[in-house]
Amino acid sequence: AQSVTQLDSHVSVSEGTPVLLRCNYSSSYSPSLFWYVQHPNKGLQLLLKYTSAATLVKGINGFEAEFKKSETSFHLTKPSAHMSDAAEYFCVVSDPRGGGGADGLTFGKGTHLIIQP
Amino acid sequence: SQTIHQWPATLVQPVGSPLSLECTVEGTSNPNLYWYRQAAGRGLQLLFYSVGIGQISSEVPQNLSASRPQDRQFILSSKKLLLSDSGFYLCAWSVGTGEAEQYFGPGTRLTVT
How far does B18 lie from chain A, in Å, by closest CA? Predict the structure, then answer.
């Protein structure tokens, strides 16, 4: 079975400082990994995707994530936070053989990112 | 380009009333379609998914049902709403399997009173 753990339910940073949202996964295979962002009362938007190519993945809005197999982690980072980054972020693992839902997707519970002015 | 529509955007319904939420996708053929529910302060719960017309798989037992009458149309229904059905309902689509990312609609906020 596969699983994904977002280590922080809430993260608060000041505008202009770095952002780190942590995600650990468990999978018996080589999964694909995603980060999604959800602004209040909106749908989820894909930030970035890892599919066994480069381990450092660049996404939209200045976000990037690094796949570390030895640590089973896929942490999301951004060098400088903007007020518009305030949202809910979801880490997702995908492996059709891993026992998740449709297409083997398993969602984390989300991390609420708060940006202080 | 592909787009996904959901309506209505918001809905307030009394307990025991019926429900019909609609989702349509444009710009792609034979997509996989999904219904999720997001309750307040909780993550996403997959309710139904469909890999083709008339093919529906249910992930959790509940008083909701789903139908796919056309290739790019996915409908979520209930005959009698419960208070616990309140939440934010999201439709999503994907193409292929495994590594395929899902693309989400804008969502419907349902409040059952």
Answer: 23
